[in-house]
Design goal:
Radius of gyration: 18 Å
Shape: globular
Structural class: alpha/beta
Bound molecules: adenosine-5'-diphosphate, magnesium ion
Strand content: 25-35%
Strand order of the largest sheet: 6-7-8-3-9
């Protein structure tokens, strides 16, 4: 059997923040971060608060520029370096290959919860009816009450918003899925639902890179933990 394909390769990534309000002082976060994530694998970023875990996810998603290194994402026959890709190329990569569940839902005014999820499916390229079918299934599995589906999530609780966010990230078939503490504001029943969704993605061959503080969740989904403190750039 051939080994599963590497879908994400992070190679010698370094990042410092420039503190413009403090005379341009440099705040080093990580240096020489290297790891791979293969199809069907869930790699967890570990380390204490402030270690640079969320920053690394944002670098992989292209929200933060890194100062050095490369972030290679498989795109069919091609491989794209997120650290060097044009904005237009990044938009395409995010639509079809690379999804990110942030810690908090960025609420879009007036768009209903279900349409937020359907939109993500349609942007990926699924037909609208298939997107709607998947959205209903996910919102049901995540125990979002049906009377909320047609409402805009601005007034939802933190946990409800987070479940809309998770449904949006999981609705399509992106090959690489980034998760920043998706279960942080959820109760045990919904944490278990998210674990099931993650295990389903692994079985279809998705490469997952996530941050999970809940040890129970981590133990159930992680194939490997990459300890970010190993790459600490603090002097
Ligand atoms: N946009 C930013 N500007 C300046 N400093 C930042 C920014 N984002 C994160 N940091 C700093 O980088 C360090 C790592 O943060 P973060 O990646 O959020 O850590 P973690 O997710 O491991 O808790 C922290 O010291 C944080 O204050
Ligand atoms: Mg974080």
């Amino acid at each position: 059997m051939t080994p599963p394909a590497t879908l994400l390769n992070v190679d010698r990534v370094g990042k410092s923040f420039t503190m413009h309000l403090q005379g341009g002082a440099l705040l080093p976060v990580v240096q020489d971060v290297s790891f791979d994530v293969a199809a069907g694998e869930c790699v967890v970023l570990g380390g204490p608060s402030g270690a640079g875990k969320s920053s690394l996810l944002k670098i992989v998603y292209g929200n933060y520029r890194c100062d050095s290194g490369s972030v290679m994402v498989r795109d069919g026959e091609d491989t794209i370096d997120v650290a060097a890709a044009s904005p237009r190329r990044m938009i395409r990569l995010r639509r079809t290959r690379l999804a990110y569940v942030s810690q908090f839902l960025r609420v879009i005014p007036r768009v209903s919860a279900i349409d937020i999820v359907v939109q993500a499916a349609v942007e990926f390229g699924l037909p609208e009816d298939e997107g709607r079918r998947r959205a209903r299934d996910l919102l049901t599995r995540l125990n979002v009450p049906e009377q909320l589906w047609s409402l805009a999530p601005a007034t939802f609780s933190g946990g409800e918003q987070q479940r809309i966010n998770i449904a949006r990230g999981f609705v399509a078939d992106h090959d690489v899925l980034l998760l920043d503490e998706p279960t942080a504001s959820l109760d045990a029943v919904n944490r278990a639902a998210v674990v099931d969704l993650i295990l389903t993605k692994k079985r279809r061959g998705t490469a997952l890179l996530g941050i999970f503080h809940d040890e129970d969740v981590r133990d159930r989904v992680a194939d490997r933990v990459v300890d970010v403190t190993r790459f600490s750039a603090a002097a």
